[in-house]
Amino acid sequence: MNIDIQDEGDSGSGQAVAFTVEANEEIHVLHPQQIIAYQGPSSGRADRLMDVKGMYRKRKLIRSDMTGPCRFVAALPPGYRVKTFHLDGKSDLLYDFRHLFFYSKGITMQTRVLSMKNMFVTRDIIKVKFSGPGSIGILTEGTVCEAELHPFDPIYIDAGSIIAYPENAKLELTVYGNHLASQHMSYHWKMTGHGPVMFQAGRQSRRFERDNNEDGIIKRFLREAIPFGGVFIK
After folding, report:
1. Distances (CA, A) of 63 to 4, 47, 81
2. d(CA 121, CA 187)
3. How many CB atoms lie within 10 A of CB 168?
4. 215 CB contacts (<8 Å, ≥6 apart)?
5. How much is the pTM?
6. 201 and 161 in contact (C-beta within 8 Å)?
7. Are 88 and 133 in contact (CB under 8 A)?
8. Hey, how many other C-beta atoms are within 10 angstroms of the C-beta on 105?
9. Are 130 and 156 in contact (CB under 8 A)?
10. pLDDT digits (tens, 9 = 90+) for 82-127
11. Is 112 exposed, middle or buried (0-12, 13-18, 19+ CB in 10 A)?
C-alpha cells in the first residue's frame, strides 16, 4: 500500500490523501464519507457496520473495506492531517477512537473503558489499543509532538491535545501553576510512566488565533483576570 499526501502548503484548504492498494491488500477506512474519488473494480469497496466492543453500545459506525487493486482519494477538512504509524505488533499505546482514520489488514483493535471522571472531562468513553503488524492512520490537528514519560517526574499535557499514551501510564486530571494560572487553563493530564506520549499542537494554535482576532484587549483582560472568566465571558 502506498499513501501519497497532497496539499498546497498552508493554504487552509485541507489535505487530499491518495491511497494505492495493491492486489491482496486491504485497508479499512473509518471515515468513508471523505472518499471523493475511486478507481478500481466496483466490488473493491464494501461498506459495513462495525461495533467495537464496549463502545457507544447502541451507536454503530460504518467503515469501508477497500480491497486492491484500486486507488482512491480522501479529502480532509482544513486544519486536519493524517499521520501514519507502522506497527510491529508490540505497541502498547492507547488511542482516541475518534482520531482513527484507517488501519490495514492484520491490525486488530482492543478497547479500554475510561473511568466516569475521565469520560466527563474528555467526552469519550473508550480508548483503543492496536495489535498485530500493519499500519494505522491517525487524524491530527497541526504538528504532532512526542515526549518521553518519566516514572516519577510528571509531564502536564492539555487533555484535548493528547493523541496516544502508553497503557502503563498513570494519569490524573488536574491544573497546575499559581492561582491565576489554574483558573483560566483547561484541564491537563498529569502523566507519569514509561514510554512515549504523543500530542498535537493545532487545537491550541487555533484557539490562540481566534482569541487574538475576535477579542478586544478589555474583553481578553477580563476573561483572564476574573476567576473563571473564560467560562462566563465568551
Report:
1. 21, 6, 19
2. 8
3. 13
4. 223
5. 0.75
6. yes
7. yes
8. 18
9. no
10. 888 888 877 788 888 878 899 998 898 887 776 665 555 555 667 8
11. exposed
